[in-house]
Amino acid sequence: MLTYRAPTRDISFILTKVLNASGCLGRDGLSDDLIEGVVSEIGRLCENELTPINRDGDEIGCELIDGVVRTPPGFKDAFRSFANGGWIGMCLDAEDGGQGLPEVLNVALHEMIMSACLSFGDYIGLPQAAAKTLAHHASGELRGLYVPNLATGRWGATMCMTEPSCGTDLGLIATSAKQLSDGRYTVNGTKIFISGGDQDITENIVHLVLARLEGAPAGIKGLSLFVCPKFVPNESGGIGDRNAVRPVRLEKKMGYHGISTCEMVFDGAAAWLVGEPNRGLAAMFTMVNTARLLVALQGLGAAEAAYQNAAHYARERLQGRSLNGPLFASQKADPLIVHPDVRRILLGARAFVEGGRALALWLGLQIDLSESGQTDEARTAASDFAALLTPVVKSMFSDLGFETCNSCMQVWGGHGYIRDNGMEQLVRDCRIAQIQEGANGIQALDLLGRKITAENGRAWGAFKNLVRSDLDASAHLDEIKEWSARLLCALESVDVATRDILQRAQHDRNELGSAGVDYLRAFGLVALGWMWVRIVSAALAGDDKARRSEKLAVARFFFARELPKVEGHLVVAQSGADVLMALPSEMV
Amino acid sequence: MLTYRAPTRDISFILTKVLNASGCLGRDGLSDDLIEGVVSEIGRLCENELTPINRDGDEIGCELIDGVVRTPPGFKDAFRSFANGGWIGMCLDAEDGGQGLPEVLNVALHEMIMSACLSFGDYIGLPQAAAKTLAHHASGELRGLYVPNLATGRWGATMCMTEPSCGTDLGLIATSAKQLSDGRYTVNGTKIFISGGDQDITENIVHLVLARLEGAPAGIKGLSLFVCPKFVPNESGGIGDRNAVRPVRLEKKMGYHGISTCEMVFDGAAAWLVGEPNRGLAAMFTMVNTARLLVALQGLGAAEAAYQNAAHYARERLQGRSLNGPLFASQKADPLIVHPDVRRILLGARAFVEGGRALALWLGLQIDLSESGQTDEARTAASDFAALLTPVVKSMFSDLGFETCNSCMQVWGGHGYIRDNGMEQLVRDCRIAQIQEGANGIQALDLLGRKITAENGRAWGAFKNLVRSDLDASAHLDEIKEWSARLLCALESVDVATRDILQRAQHDRNELGSAGVDYLRAFGLVALGWMWVRIVSAALAGDDKARRSEKLAVARFFFARELPKVEGHLVVAQSGADVLMALPSEMV
After folding, report:
1. CA B511 to chain CA centroid, nearest Å
2. CA–CA separation, B441 vs B421, rounded Å?
3. Average pLDDT for residues B214-237, to the nearest whole number?
4. Is B320 at the interface with chain A, CB within 8 A?
5. A481 in contact with B at a CB cutoff of 8 Å?
6. Degrees to nearest 5, angle at CA B418 with B124 and B409
7. Which residues, 6 or more positions from B492, have their beta carbon under 8 angstroms from its beta carbon?
8. CA–CA distance, B187 with B195 (Å, rounded to integer)
9. Taking Cα atoms as reference points, which of B169, B59, B199 lies closest to residue A332?
10. Longest distance between any two alpha carbons in chain A, whole Å
11. How confident is residue B289, by pLDDT bands cut at 50, 70 and 90?
12. Which of A333, A361, A496, B140 is deepest in the core (most CB within 10 A)?
């Protein structure tokens, strides 16, 4: 069975030393000590409550019995522990039942949840997302009724967007809503792939539903957002009548078995409008950066767990001899870790996970600053960064997470392929991250087609400046001079490619789609490299020698073996849409 | 559910026009017509017999009940169809109960089996391998008793190598054998991960077992090969007493559920020595090139099936609009195939599958020529090529197969992640190919540490000459001039890197392990590019205009988007072992 030790030391190091989160946020009461305490408490919770339920989550999974979903053993108790700790509402204001902590700590929370039990994450993430959406967009009455119940874990939540003929293309949503004479609404339609659509963990479930009001325009501009509870709250705010929304099917999936994935039928279900009619997508998209970052953490968290278990196995398993002759001659064989290719896999995992952790936490900080930054300018800059980097992080982390889980499973050989040891579960579980919250191809289009060009490239310009100024700040450090130089070159190459691709796209928008995925990866590798410079700078400034050695070694790996891939990706990104589009559809 | 149309036209085109198999082999009776007939018959069989059982093979899988394995519904009947068609013994001599067909046609057979039902393949491949091993190494009596029964599908077979503490490192094998006073042998020990260790398909199962005779040297030089039947044949060659070998456990795996994966206990089981004592590994390794090529075909075959089903879905599924504006304005959305990124996935799949098919079939031809070439020189040259390219093809095809299945699953979005549609099964099934028959990291070491350097680099020198002369032969074709030039550059880069890595390895063998995986991929991409030049040359020489357009377009994709990756892999391959080895084991 998999083991997991929450990397609370590294997370705290990044938050306090690399990113200086408390200083950046400048909130009353948010000290480094508080941050370390929170991280350590969450780590303990994930180790103790989630690691033990992960296997049953996969092997037993969810069941739909007589119209009610039964979650795997232990999920309800674990949820209760997180709720009781106040972690569901941690980022909500006190008036909404929350703790007023910054989003960046929620990033830390979700990384550790994903490592310990990936399929549990949505049970926490969904009420958080619903609460935040309602806190921002719902009327005072709805907010007062629903948000505290979500914040405290009394009620669960879902996001109901996808339909049988509408995944990426939300403009095709057919679920309808109509207003009754008393002002209330009813919703009719079928939604699929609804995570947590039903469960036996909370006494009520709050569905946020995108639907089309009678007479609304076609496409995404005719979508409104509704809150549609499983049980209609009664006048005292308790559980009232069962509403006409029910799970009719539970999907069998590749992995991710602990979360129920439901087909939901809304059959004239009572619902309440959230925000303005026909502005539903905008309300839902309040959450999009956070939601995508959490999906990125599925990749990152799974990769951390995979790394830990592969490293453990590589140190224990005796097989073969070092290529330079036996290193442990008295044993029947050397441990796997003497083999360069095994170390390639382990160091590759760390290059992604530790650099990615820093980037994810930095991104979490931007989400905080976009709301709580002290000036308009600061909020706009942070919002720009969050918008620009979110598709990069969502897509790259889910891709690299899958690749990392897969290569760490490879360390285990045949023992990784059998179910007993849990390595293959990580691969199956984290595979969902490449798909959900906008498939990765869409993220690449979002980056090149929208985020890079928005406001005349303002965000991209600011990002380049930020990276350059961070590299300047480290210019005095001998250890990283050469890496900085190479990173500047790579940044320059991405910049040149950006201009080239956008130039071509003026004549043919397919250039964006043709370049997207490879362009995004090149961009992401530069962003990871930037974080590695910051990590090493912070480690060199500290007095922990072991950390310094490790961070220098992993950074060296990154700059020797990962950054060089940037050029190849850019060549491919600039190879032209005609290569893909010339052949008629029926011949592709 | 997945559909599959056997690509018999493309396979025949490659065999007859690209590789000129009948001309190369120069066997009596082996005409292009015969080849096309065989390919088409096998294709029909795979479509009709295997595609329908693939889903149950995964969902129901094997069960161990009262000490006997039950295979999934339909597996026995399908096996019978292949046996009745004579396809199990197809490459054996007539005297062994075979058809005397070349190995290259068995490559075609297994590609199609792997596409239609990957987990069925071992039931065919194992008796083939066992029969060939016994035909080469067993005494006349053993050969006469066992080989025809294997060839005709009356009896099944296994290869028993792996043990709980011995996977890659066969020198650690602990299973023991001792000779009785009557000259017979008994075997004691435990073997794990034994494919087809027990099944209900054949009346008997022939285990080929690596074991250590009493007093034999430690390590791989003390291993002997034994044949150990489930039922000891009686004097008339029929089924006699139940032997003391039994399955004690069936592994639950990530995929590949149709084949039973057994832990086998040999408890003083009667056995017969095959070949010389202590020469067991050499006898087993007769089959290694063929066995590894079949594993490569797991990757290739799964990728072909994934491509077909992704292409189908991409043409049918309406979602979103072309980036240049609606192409099917009267429909509610455009089909996915208008999107460049979807085409990138599909053309990428074809660039691998069609180029890889040619390379696999070429490799099959080399295996034939290494045995039946007309001169010593020809046999040696073919044997060199087979030895050199086998690790490349095994490793690259299984890696690209997995990547391709995964990206084709991505085309289906969430509908690919649920089990109903079968796309995720392809990913889970073909994942085994990266592990079995020598994990891919080992293949890379084999290539750089042995195959490249063998006989002073004779095989590598001959391979470079072969590629160069093929490029010369196509030099008059305007369409491929530029590709040829780029391919020559890439070949030159691989050559330079080869010398550099081998030079460093003289001082530190870890350079081989550090370079291995990336070096192998660069090598493999050059080999694929070489095949694409040959494919396009053949297509240009033919009169099928559609084929010409398609092959030119896919080759263009390959040279624009795949070949450029060679340089990046070589940079990484030459980045030095110290990057990986400097950190102490406990800190990695």
Report:
1. 27
2. 32
3. 95
4. yes
5. no
6. 70
7. none
8. 19
9. B169
10. 85
11. confident
12. A361
Rounded Cα distance between A451 and A395, Å, is: 14
Res A141 pLDDT > 90 = yes
Maximum separation of any 2 CA atoms in chain B, in Å = 85
Q: Give this prediction's pTM.
A: 0.98
Q: Looking at residue B103, what DSSP letter applies?
A: H
Are residues A172 and B319, on separate chains, in Cβ contact within 8 Å? yes
- What was the pLDDT predicted at B400? 98
Count of Cβ atoms closer than 10 Å to residue B65 Cβ: 10
A437 is annotated as an active-site residue? yes
The CA distance from B390 to B366, in Å, is 10
Return phi, psi of residue A195, to 5°: -65, 130
10 Å Cβ neighbour count for B32? 15
pLDDT for B183: 86
Place of tokens 């679920």: A175
Please tell me the distance from the alpha carbon of residue A292 to that of residue B414, in angstroms, as a whole number.
Answer: 16
Cα–Cα distance measured from residue A425 to residue A442, given in angstroms and rounded to the nearest whole number: 26
Residue B265 CB: number of other CB atoms within 10 A? Answer: 16
The secondary structure of B310-359, three-state, reads: HHHHHHHCECCCCCCCCCCCCCCCCEHHHCHHHHHHHHHHHHHHHHHHHH
> Token pair of B286, please?
């007769």
Q: Helix B376-411 to helix B423-430 angle, to the nearest 10 degrees?
A: 140
Closest to A126 (Cα-Cα) out of A169, A85, A155, A166: A155
| Percent of all residues in chain B with a pLDDT value above 90, rounded to a whole number | 96
Separation between Cα atoms, residue B540 and residue A522, nearest integer Å? 36
Does A509 lie at the interface with B, CB-CB under 8 angstroms? yes
- B516 pLDDT band, cuts 50/70/90, is very high
B329 touches A: beta carbon within 8 Å: no
Q: Give the residue on A whose Cα is nearest the Cα of B425.
A: A254
* CA A574 distance to own-chain centroid: 28
Which secondary structure element, helix H or strand E, spans residue A267, and what is its range? Answer: strand A261-274
Q: What is the DSSP letter of A586?
A: G
Q: Which backbone phi and psi does B311 adopt, to 5 degrees?
A: -65, -45
**Cα separation of A156 and A231, whole Å?**
11
Model pLDDT for residues A100-129, shown as the tens digit of each residue: 999 999 999 999 999 999 999 999 999 999
* A577 residue type, one letter: A
CB atoms A333 and B585 under 8 Å? no
CA distance A313 to A316: 5
DSSP 8-state secondary structure symbol assigned to residue A224: E
**DSSP-assigned beta bridge partners for residue B274:** B225
Closest CA to B126 of B82, B93, B169: B82
Degrees (nearest 5) of the Cα angle A85, A88, A93?
100
CA distances from A461 to A360, A464, A491, B187 (A): 20, 5, 11, 72
Q: What is the DSSP string of A394-446?
A: HHHHHHHHHHHHHHHHHHTTHHHHBGGGSHHHHHHHHGGGGTSSS-HHHHHHH
User: Does ipTM top 0.95?
Assistant: yes
Strand B223-229 relative to strand B261-274, pairing: antiparallel
Q: Which of A340, A428, A436 sits opposite B580 (nearest CB)?
A: A340
Q: Which of B103, B111, B354, B437 is catalytic?
A: B437
Least CA distance to B579: which residue of chain A? A557
Q: How does DSSP assign B24-92, residue by residue?
A: HH--TT--HHHHHHHHHHHHHHIIIIIGGGHHHHHHT--EEETTEEEPPTTHHHHHHHHHHTT-TTTTS
Q: Cβ(B387)–Cβ(B44) under 8 Å? A: no
- Per-residue exposure over B153-192, b if at least 16 CB sit within 10 Å of its own CB, e if not: bbbbbbbbbbbebbbbbbbbbebebeeeeeeebbbbbbbb
